[in-house]
Amino acid sequence: MPDQSIPQSLPEARPPVDAAEGVPSETSSPEGLTRRRLLGTAGATGLALGAAGGAVGYTAAPSQATPLSSIGAGEAMFHVKHQPGITQGLQARGHLVAFDLAAGAGRKDAAALLRRWSETARRLMAGEAAATDDTDVARDAGPSSLTVTFGFGNSFFTRTGLEKQRPVALDPLPDFSSDHLDKTRSNGDLWVQIGADDALVAFHALRAIQKDAGKAAKVRWQMNGFNRTPGATAHPMTARNLMGQMDGTRNPKPADSDFDQRIFVPSDSTKDPAWMADGSYAVVRRIRMLLDDWEKLSVKAQEQVIGRRKSDGAALSGGTETTAMDLEKTDANGDLVVPINAHARITRPDQNGGAAMLRRPFSYHDGIDPDGTPDAGLLFVCWQADPLRGFVTVQRKLDRGDALSQYIRHESSGLFAVPGGAAKGEYVGQRLLEA
After folding, report:
1. What pTM value is reported for the model?
2. Which of 198, 247, 272, 386 is catalytic?
3. What DSSP state is assigned to residue 78?
4. How far from the centroid of its chain's Cα atoms is residue 253's Cα?
5. Which neighbouring-strand residues pair with 363?
6. At what angle do helices 107-125 and 199-213 cross, to 10 degrees?
7. Which of 4, 3, 195 is nearest to 87 (CA)?
8. What's the confidence (pLDDT) of residue 352?
9. 172 and 154 in contact (C-beta within 8 Å)?
């Protein structure tokens, strides 16, 4: 799933993000450090010590002289134009969780819940403790690039009496031939995405969000995922998935001139309700990778399925990872170098009327089935201004002959409206719930 199922990783050693735009900033101010954001002398000194120690085992050092690493120091802002967790780089650990409102809970209860959740997210993303009953799980860590993102499912609007505010874009997704969906692990009234570069920081946020739900909502489903830890490679590079493929080469980038119009709902949209301005739509799919079957293929056969070299992600037509794919190139026998059913060919925007989406998933491994097969794959999350033009268009094309389809299975699905970021003094969804 290189070109449409998994995003290109952004630089792995990420600085704090700018509060105004939610994009990486080059510098950070020493003011406003929290008790768990001890930047210390992290930078190059800490990294050099780590490299030296790695050659001979752990190096003893006085506890008071151990600074927080650059991973722990990363901080994302809560009060931004677009909710955090959309344009930030891939995080090492993630939790996706859906909630259903409790019986009898309505609009007022939902508003109170989103107010609590927003305050908790703001505090934890700044490296602070939860306002009440903090578990201390993340006491010793920095913010670790924690992001918490909130969305609304189709059923939320019926439960709260807000049917007239439900976006048309939230109409249920169509059925696809690769679907083997478990309805108990699909959809939900509310959706929360949690990501961080430290597992304990991510779990701390998950536990705080669950506790904040109280009697207003109960967990419908939860999924746990991971990515490569930032800084684990010698230089920033495109992520690899559990099939070993470099994946996400053609993911849209914030620097693209049409990025915002593809990913975010414009403030003057005539198709979407006003409360969705600067928001986006998230499609969430649990995609099982049939790894035992995949790993029986030779590397050459795997590359033919994908349409890209496994070693460096370059198209089979030649060049480097970023060289444009030549769809017409043939070999000495007159056969297409990039097969007609190769995943990377089928998912190209120029083969789908320009349809594109920002993929930002996590890999997952949930153990071994009784027959010995791994329950592993992708927690696919993609973002777009219009899911019908983005995800649905591409998935319909894949349904008609993607070579990768026999090695994957879609096991759960959800579609959520994710409003724009909350301004200071606001909570996420306030413009919907208090309209």
Report:
1. 0.85
2. 247
3. S
4. 14
5. 226, 378
6. 160
7. 195
8. 83
9. yes
Do residues 188 and 155 lie in contact, with contact meaning Cβ atoms separated by under 8 Å? yes
Whole-angstrom distance, CA of residue 256 vs CA of residue 358: 12
Token digits for 166? Answer: 């439900």
pLDDT digits (tens, 9 = 90+) for 232-259: 988 888 999 999 998 888 899 999 999 9
Token readout for 158 is 């019926």
Active site residue 197: no
Radius of gyration of the chain (CA): 22
Cα–Cα distance, 51 to 233 (Å, whole number): 12
CA 314 to chain CA mean position, Å: 24
CB 14 within 8 A of CB 42: no
Q: Residue 300 has which token pair? A: 């050459």
Show the tokens assigned to 56: 């001979």
| Residue 417, amino acid | A
Contacts of residue 163, defined as CB under 8 A and 6 or more positions apart, other chains included, come to: 157
350: buried, middle or exposed (CB in 10 Å: 19+, 13-18, 0-12)?
Answer: exposed
- Contact partners, residue 122, CB within 8 Å, separation at least 6: 78, 79
